[in-house]
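Late entry, evening session. Most of the bench is empty. Finally got around to the prediction I had been postponing all week. Sequence below, unchanged from the version circulated by S.P.
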Amino acid sequence: MTSIADRLSFAHGPDWRNRVALAPLTNTQSHADGTLSEDETRWLEARGEGGFGLVMTAAAYVAPAGHAWDGQLGVASDAHLPGLTALAQRLRATGARSSVQLHHGGRRADPALSGRPNQCPWDDPAKQAVAMTTAEVEQLVADFVAAAVRAERAGFDGVEVHGAHGYLLGQFLDGRNLRTDGYGGSLDHRIRVVLEVVESIRAATGPDFQLGLRLTPEGNGITLEEGRETARRMLDSGLLDYLDMSLWDVFMRPRGGAAGLLIEHFTDLPRGATRLGVAGRVLSGADARWCLEQGADIVTVGFGAIFHHDFASRVLADPDFAARPGPLSREELRAEAVGPAFIDYLAAGWDDVVA
């Protein structure tokens, strides 16, 4: 029986010390130019000290056009390198493995931050978005690759490509993407840009650099059938070290009414040497064990890591550990290395997190 304490090996790069990964949580703590702040660096470093096998940054924009919210981390310029390099060094000192999540907001970017209309596979006036030219799609691939190379130069162990939650790569997977230039229409064409991104990152980075991909199982214009088929193809591609399925809640049933639990539509897929991670409301040791019992290799933790910087260490030491219920006071959150900007963001979005 697989244990969350078991080391985890990959086709590329170093082992992780356990099966618990920090979710790429939006925390709005970066400076306006996308450079890291000490609050954001400390938030991540504390999770490394807290025993997580992988510590991943929040979604980091790969190009100025993809800048999606105030306080978002950037990996789009060499100006971002000094902070990223310092973060990678501090994470390595904790014993955790490190990753930058690569992101482009697409039609969910903020034109006030990017200074231009949003990019999208199709025209969407309601989102101030215009359809990308084929040349712009090709540049998008190049931007993801350049960001991955930049993360490798900074000293990170890997990157995760954000293809979920209706951001730009997920918009290409959306059934509304009816482009006729080979990047839209059938699933074969809609998945093309995602494949080109991961193929190109794999070719441009070294053999010890880890590559993951986050996908949405259904929703945001993706049916469960196509979400499963996309996951199957990516697991079968041999390009990824892990596939990170963002399930919202690991215990939920499919929204479209399909049988069983959502997690079951992915844990049964053949995966070869590729590892499968699942994320969504994992708040206890029992939750984490259950995910592994269902067939996952990695358990990705979000809110549990907000409430306890050492959630991973606590779960490894006590199989019955469960995160304390929210809401927590601002003082309690600060004690967990959650900075003021992050606390304000949480308070604005979730009634049960900040008192």
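Two things to note before I forget:
The CA atoms of residues 247 and 280 lie 5 Å apart.
Strands lie at 20-22, 54-61, 97-103, 118-120, 129-131, 158-163, 210-215, 242-246, 275-279, 298-301.
Will write this up properly tomorrow.
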